[in-house]
Amino acid sequence: MPRFHVDGPLCAGQTFALPDDVVRHVHVLRLQTGDAITLFDGRGGEYRGELVDIAKRAATVRIDEHSDREAEPPYRVTLAQGVAGGDKMDWLIEKAVELGVSGIAPITAERGVVRLAGERALRRQAHWQALTRAACEQCGRNRVPEVAPPRDLGAWLADLPAAINGELRLLLSPRAEVSFASLPVDPPASPVTLLIGPEAGFSPAEETAIVDAGFSTLGLGPRVLRTETAGIAVLAALAARWAGW
Question: What is the mean pLDDT of the chain?
Fold first, then answer.
């Protein structure tokens, strides 16, 4: 059944006009009056709806019932990702959402090839947020991860709250102190933050600042992974370890 995100709030028994972006998808999918669709507003669960009218540039849906179905993993991971160049960041965000990440923090660093500020940063954030919504529509998630505004590493670290008991802060690094096998076997109740550097990695001074902020360096073995591979590999491994599948 086709799934669409709609800015809520939604409620059973409601009949309303679908937003323009959803109407475009309805036409692309060649849906007809009477077809069933699924809607979600990001507040939890999803709604079964029926298309009751379709025009050239408009469509109306009637919401029939709510389901409390969720597809969230039993843990919360924020991916703090060094901004990658080209279309790598788009691909990475899409796959991270599919793998259950709960939030994404784009990070700029000394050695990063991408510089974002002002209106350009806001446009990229909006674009990445739209990608998370589309990924949730595709993969069955009903809670949309938030993409934070792009931040310089130093400013982002300065704004991090003090670590709470049991919180995991992990920096993926070839100079690792912690092996993947040493991570907890059970999913942690406290949040997890996974920090990945840009293409050229973090500078030694940046790594020192990250460790001083309470991060442990995590290794995945003898091979050095690309920035667009590293976070996805860790998220998939955590899903296997902590029953995220």
Answer: 93
